[in-house]
Amino acid sequence: MSVIDNLFTAAKSARVNAYAPYSDFKVGAAILAEDGTVFPGCNVENAAYPQGVCAEAGAINAMILAGQTRIAEVLVIADAALCTPCGGCRQKLNEFADQSVKVHVANLDGVRRTFTVGELLPAGFELNEKN
Ligand code: THU
Known about the structure:
This protein is an alpha+beta fold. It has helices at 3-16, 55-65, 87-96, 117-120, and strands at residues 27-33, 38-42, 71-78, 97-107, 110-116. The protein has 4 helices and 5 strands. A hairpin with a 2-residue loop joins strand 4 (97-107) and strand 5.
């Protein structure tokens, strides 16, 4: 199986377990870490709405917990025309990914578009020393 096929399968099955009773919008994500491990994630909503967590954030947390710190490729899936990562998740991905890292956006049938992290978040925040 190709990398994209692996990410698609992982994200699609993660999406099944998404907890999204408030939005009824289930999202799955899969992150390929630089060591070749795939980390899935799904969105987990909360009755206190802002406490909900996006699928990408769950996958990032799993990657960090496993000791991996660099993202090689990402796939996000939802039953939607184009579920691109939200602004906050773009910044979260940027923390662990080079600008050239591919982010595939899929619906239930397959990948619909591919972006790079740099395309999704130009001029993302970087914590630099003061001048
Ligand atoms: N959601 C994600 O999980 N990832 C995104 O990049 C976009 C939005 C979730 C958050 C919320 O649970 C639901 O989709 C509707 O906004």
